[in-house]
Structure to design on (486 residues):
């Protein structure tokens, strides 16, 4: 092998290694193929659906890869390796089940497709799904792979395809899943990321608070001098101008929002480490927006409610027909846009980075063409680095925007008018 | 067919948001050039306004995605 062929293959190897975190499916490609083939040769009466099971990941699908990444699976992947997380599942007709995702016996490297079903649950691409058919065995059995047709997934067992209930998700099924026959309270990837970030922030801020007590009146030191400008920026640019003299009461809420969102945004940017997408999860941003909604409306003064329900200085007919309905709608639209803005910005950023990385596999025809893949690397790496740099900026801007909008909504609600 | 209509709807929403945020940015630059000492206030308000415009576009994008 001369140098000219060695170099692209080295590049290819490096890229595949680096991209491993983002596209765990690729490194496992051949292995996966074999398992499926064995499964389908074992049973010859495999239905049409199951016959195609081995082929669902033959072509590289950038959209599927991106959506796999932004999903919230029940395994935590560090680099190309998967680690099981605890599953807490409740189905009204089945009861509560608590077990480790390791029961599904998924591959240590790869997609995270479980090779076993456990108590009627299976692990499809890292996500727990339930077999609705009551004739499916409830004990631990070896399954023969998964078949996907559009949004519908089914599991193959003894040559028969059993339809799977979609993943349980709080976002109403906007990005797969939805309200289904079981509830998933598991410590999924995003929950683990959330707990890690929470512990990290608590450690930093408790340490800073202690050093402010110990070193009172002295210049800040260490991490303290890194966090103080950010803290003062939010206090002086967001809290004080929008909240007037009541700023101290809402300061803790605003600071918690800002630093929590910022830390989670930045945590989602770390490659190889779970690829957490917490702030790009609709359920999480909905929880944050609900906090804002309740803080704003529980603290609203009579002046605020008067402007919402019966705007002064406008003819009564116009008030009744237009202004009041629009204002009441506005009460809900404000937190709704807060929720969507953070979710869409972070999710879009993740998808764009994943699409740029996917260029390598599109150009390389899923590993057939080394030259194409090398060209893909040349195109994709600078674009990805550029996009990730922009994402760093977006992480700060979105945390700031969420905080400043919350402050302005609270400010409008607690304002006392002096006519 | 439905997918392509979704894409057209998203594109239209993005055009609107692009015009809006572009205007905000242009006017903010003008304002900073006129009064460089007010750069902090202008920047904060610029981001706030851009976020509000973006919110309207995001609602359109999500609705076109759902429908």
């Amino acid at each position: 092998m001369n140098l000219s062929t060695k170099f692209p293959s080295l590049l290819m190897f490096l890229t595949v290694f680096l991209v491993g975190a983002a596209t765990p499916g690729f490194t496992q490609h051949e292995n996966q193929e074999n398992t499926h083939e064995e499964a389908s040769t074992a049973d010859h009466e495999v239905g049409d659906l199951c016959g195609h099971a081995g082929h669902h990941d033959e072509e590289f699908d950038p959209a599927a890869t991106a959506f796999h990444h932004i999903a919230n699976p029940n395994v935590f992947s560090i680099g190309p390796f998967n680690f099981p997380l605890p599953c807490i599942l409740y189905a009204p007709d089945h009861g509560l089940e608590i077990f480790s995702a390791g029961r599904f016996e998924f591959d240590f490297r790869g997609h995270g497709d479980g090779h076993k079903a456990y108590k009627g649950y299976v692990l499809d691409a890292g996500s727990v799904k339930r077999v609705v058919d009551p004739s499916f065995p409830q004990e631990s059995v070896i399954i023969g792979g998964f078949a996907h047709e559009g949004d519908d997934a089914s599991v193959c067992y003894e040559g028969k395809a059993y339809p799977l209930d979609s993943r349980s998700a709080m976002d109403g099924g906007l990005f797969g899943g939805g309200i289904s026959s079981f509830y998933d309270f598991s410590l999924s990837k995003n929950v683990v990321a959330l707990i890690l970030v929470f512990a990290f922030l608590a450690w930093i801020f408790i340490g800073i608070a202690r050093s402010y007590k110990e070193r009172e009146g002295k210049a800040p030191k260490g991490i303290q001098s890194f966090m103080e400008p950010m803290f003062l920026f939010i206090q002086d640019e967001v809290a004080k101008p929008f909240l007037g003299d009541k700023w101290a009461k809402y300061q803790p809420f605003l600071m918690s929002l800002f630093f929590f969102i910022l830390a989670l945004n930045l945590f989602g940017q770390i490659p190889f480490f779970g690829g957490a997408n917490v702030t790009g999860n609709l359920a999480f941003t909905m929880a944050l927006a609900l906090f804002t909604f309740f803080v704003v409306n529980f603290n609203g003064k009579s002046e605020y409610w008067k402007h919402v329900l019966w705007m002064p200085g406008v003819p009564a007919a116009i008030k009744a027909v237009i202004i009041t309905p629009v204002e009441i709608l506005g009460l809900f639209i404000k937190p709704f846009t807060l929720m969507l803005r953070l979710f869409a910005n972070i999710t879009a950023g993740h998808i764009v980075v994943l699409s740029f990385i996917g260029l390598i596999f599109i150009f390389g025809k899923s590993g057939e063409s080394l030259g194409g893949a090398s060209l893909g690397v040349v195109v994709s790496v600078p674009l990805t680095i550029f996009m990730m740099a922009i994402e760093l900026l977006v992480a700060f801007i979105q945390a700031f925007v969420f905080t400043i909008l919350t402050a302005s909504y609270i400010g409008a609600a607690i304002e006392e008018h002096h006519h | 067919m439905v997918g392509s209509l979704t894409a057209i709807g998203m594109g239209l929403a993005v055009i609107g948001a692009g015009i809006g945020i572009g205007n905000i940015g242009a006017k903010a630059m003008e304002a900073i050039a006129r009064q460089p000492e007010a750069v902090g206030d202008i920047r904060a308000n610029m981001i706030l306004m851009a976020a509000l415009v973006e919110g309207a576009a995001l609602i359109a994008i999500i609705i076109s995605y759902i429908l």
